[in-house]
Amino acid sequence: MATLTATPSDLTITPRKLSVARDAVNPRWWHGGDPVATAFFNALSATFPQGETFFIDAVRRYRDEADPVLKEQINAFIQQEAMHTREHVAFNRLIKGAGYDTAAMDAYTRMRIDLARSRHPIGQLAMTIALEHFTAIMAHSLLTEKDPMAGAPSDVRKLWQWHAIEEIEHKAVAYDTWNVATRNLSGFRRWFIRTQVMALISFQFWRSNCRHMADFFRQDGINTPRTWLRVLKFLWIKPGMLRRILPAYLSYYRPGFHPWEHDDRSLIAAVEQQLNSDPAAT
Ligand SMILES: [Fe+2]
Ligand SMILES: [Fe+2]
Q: What is the 49 CA–ligand 1 centroid distance (Å)?
């Protein structure tokens, strides 16, 4: 993988249209009949609509300070995240249709986001770049699995692949906005805020994911140590997303880090081509 130190000058961020079937009837454990994998992705999806709206607001606040190129990227970022929100709202409705009650998760996410919105705008942007790094490296990990979401309905598989390529494509927009917004702070201070917030967000992000997964397991009657051993295996061994993202996660703590130092544009192109040639997914 090539290494870059800034956003590639020829990067185009393309908001792609996608619409998941609103009336689909998916199995309750849509991820190949696996309650653990299903709960993991359901938990993420439960937080996306409110989380991505928060990202949009955090970045948009600084749009007028950006140069024309970044301004255009911010606009594309907003369009992409708005579309993700819309489609995950639809997907979350299918989760409810499968019999899950997500009211408690929604209320918890609302409480966390309200708290985040009470912070200083620079703090909100720091949270956004931390979470955008998570989504980009998790997206990379998902797309480089041998056969991502092979057991999922094609519509659902396509939703997650589409979301993943766009997360990779716009992974530096919030970060570049952060560099503009904090231009008057010293290099040390920028690094200090960014990494402190990442440490905090890492804890909160996984606590929230585990909390939501526990909620799904409880509703399935399987919130047991045995299930949580399966979660550990799923996250650390096979497919082992946490193990796979660890090096890229740690690179965030290095002074001078930039999201495009992991140049995965070829991955976007490969997955996009595959999506376009998948007759079941159009
Ligand atoms: Fe997104
Ligand atoms: Fe994003």
A: 9
- Smallest-distance ligand from the CA of 134: 2
Ligand 2: centre distance to CA 46 (Å):
15
Instruction: Among the bound ligands, name the one nearest to the CA of residue 162.
Output: 1
Q: Which ligand is nearest to the CA of 135?
A: 2
Q: Are 98 and 168 in contact (CB under 8 A)?
A: no
CA-closest candidate to residue 170, choices 197, 195, 198, 135: 135
Which pLDDT tens digit goes with each residue over 166-221? 999 999 999 999 999 999 999 999 999 999 999 999 999 999 999 999 999 999 99
Q: Is 11 left (phi over 0), alpha (psi -120 to 50) or beta?
A: beta
CA of 41 to the centre of ligand 1 (A): 14
Q: Are 187 and 105 in contact (CB under 8 A)?
A: no
Question: What backbone torsions phi and psi does residue 19 show, to the nearest 5 degrees?
Answer: -140, 115
Q: Could you tell me which residues come within 8 angstroms of residue 37 by beta carbon, excluding any fewer than 6 positions away?
A: 31, 234
Alpha carbon of 87 to ligand 1 centroid (Å)? 10
The Cα 197–Cα 129 span in angstroms is 9
The Å distance, Cα 223 to ligand 2 centre, comes to 31
Which ligand places an atom closest to the C-alpha of 169? 2
| Percent of the chain surpassing pLDDT 90 | 89
Are 4 and 260 in contact by the 8 Å Cβ rule? The answer is yes
Q: Tokens 């550990």, residue? A: 232
